[in-house]
Amino acid sequence: MRKKKSEVFIPEGIEKYMTVVQEVYGDELLMAALYGSAATGSYVTGVSDINMLFVVQEPNVERLIDLGQRSRRITETYRITAHILSKQELLTSGDVFPVEYLEIADTMELIHGTDLITSMAIDKKNLRHQVESMIRGEINSLRQLVIASFGRRKLFTRELRMWAGRQAALFRALMRLTGSDSQRHDAYAAAEQLAETFEISSKPLLDLEDLREDKPVSRSIEEIIGDVLHAYITIAEIIDGPTYR
After folding, report:
1. Using CA of residue 176, residue 177, residue 179, residue 183, what is the dihedral sign?
2. Is the pLDDT reported for residue 2 higher than 50?
3. Which of 7, 60, 83, 184 could be bridged to 175 by S-S, CB 3.0 to 4.6 A?
4. Cβ proximity of 78 and 12 under 8 Å
């Protein structure tokens, strides 16, 4: 079956999912927003998810089960990732998830209700801590990926592409931390800016974006992995240093 263009596919998925959410929560739905790649134009069909945030009066288990049952086919067809929480949870978790909420605030498109994100205050100290945790986590994930699947080339390439797809969020978080965020929604420009900021080669970061978009790369996967790990370790050590503390 021919794939629909993202400008048709995304609104269609949102409309269908919103219909189910409103049926389940009714007047208890306080806010609904689209954010991430589907809101910024950097969505990659077959790789990206349609990310949506829902704030409700009470996200109890019964309603979640009902929503899951009613929306299963829509969720699978349109790759919708729904984040559902209460207003109290939203307003008290900015210190724990500063990266996510800054991402939402910066990219979101309000679909329903009141914008509650603007009333949140994000401390840069908390942002630094989470960004360091993210990059060290990705270093570990890449090493685990090599161990688990490198002997199976096709599997490894597929899994590496999926891993590369997660790095755009890390790039944007790093740019917010450093203040060099003018090009953060252009992944290639972000890679160049990050390389300049941290005084590293931009090539491994650019290679990652090529892998994400399934473009051909000019060197071996082994070389790319080695250089990416070196770049990430260097960045992690810098943001753990006095400049960003």
Report:
1. negative
2. no
3. 184
4. yes
User: If you average pLDDT over residues 11-31, what whole number do you get?
Assistant: 97
- Boundary-marking domain end, from 69, 94, 119: 119
Identify which of 47, 29, 25 has the alpha carbon closest to the alpha carbon of residue 38.
47
DSSP conformational letter for 57: S
The answer to whether residue 204 is domain-embedded is: yes
Shared-domain flag, residues 66 and 151? no
Residues constituting the chain: 245
The band of 184, judged by pLDDT with boundaries at 50, 70 and 90, is low
Count the neighbouring beta carbons within 10 Å of the beta carbon of residue 141: 12
Q: Is residue 190 part of a domain?
A: yes
Beta-strand relationship, 80-86 and 109-113? unpaired
Instruction: Please give the structure tokens belonging to residue 152.
Output: 């199976």
pLDDT for 148 beyond 90: no
Structurally, the chain folds into a number of domains equal to 2
Residue 133 shares a structural domain with residue 42: no
Domain that holds residue 31: 6-119
Task: Answer for the pair 33, 53: CB distance below 8 angstroms, yes or no.
Answer: yes
Interval 101-119: pLDDT, tens: 988 988 899 999 999 998 8
Q: What is this structure's pTM?
A: 0.74
Residue 244 lies in a domain: no
Q: Are residues 42 and 144 in the same domain?
A: no
pLDDT over 50 (residue 1) = no
Residue 37 lies in a domain: yes
